[in-house]
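Recap from last week: sequence in, structure out.
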Amino acid sequence: MPAQKIGDLIARTSELRALSHQARRLTEMQQVLLEAVPLQLARAIQVKNFRAGTLFLLASNAAVAAKLRQLAPTLLLHVRKLRSEVTGIHVEVQAANQQKACPDKPVRDISLTTASALERLAGTLKDSPLKTALTRLLQRR
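Predicted structure tokens:
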């Protein structure tokens, strides 16, 4: 299979194009939202989805969620100035995973077979950001 740029692949595939558009839109909404909240609060929230006019937000804990619900009318006004299609805000709590990996044990998230295949792939690529990323991934595993 010839090497292809990821942007070209996304542009040719309708499902990936739609997914890319949705991801870009959520990123833009995240930026708009972050402009409207204090820095401490911005670190604890994330845009989850946008569907049927409702912006779904994830809060890292119940206190952040409560504050977001208090600020929702103000946030909605701010977001609507730039994104008129937003008609509501829904806040959910998504507690961050507090478990830390044990430093004594290495975390292996890819199998040896996968690592070998990635190593072979990296060997066939010309110097590029993809080759660099694959090499770094294999070194860290």
